[in-house]
Write a structure and sequence with these properties.
Blueprint: E1 3-5, H1 6-15, E2 19-22, H2 26-31, E3 38-39, H3 45-48, E4 57-61, H4 66-77, E5 81-86, H5 88-93
Parallel strand pairs: 1-5, 2-3, 2-4, 4-5
Amino acid sequence: MKEITFNDFYQLYQNSSLSVLDVRAVDEFESLHLEGARNLPLSQLADTYEQLDKDQLYYVICKSGMRSARACQFLAEQGYDVINVQGGMTVFENL
């Protein structure tokens, strides 16, 4: 699985147009999220992943990196190009 540290991801995010997929629950997403991120909760991913574009690279984020790692594994198995953001929103909250 491809991974990136949150700090490296955040530098890219600030300087580029990235597709960010946030797999936290809706209430977590609504309380704090990165601008432009798309919320597809891990609990619903098996039913919603086909909305995603297989030609797009997605940076997948959650609170700490565990749910995003599971989401990345699932999406990669479906043929999607994904990168897990290590540390997740916990790192962002502490910037």
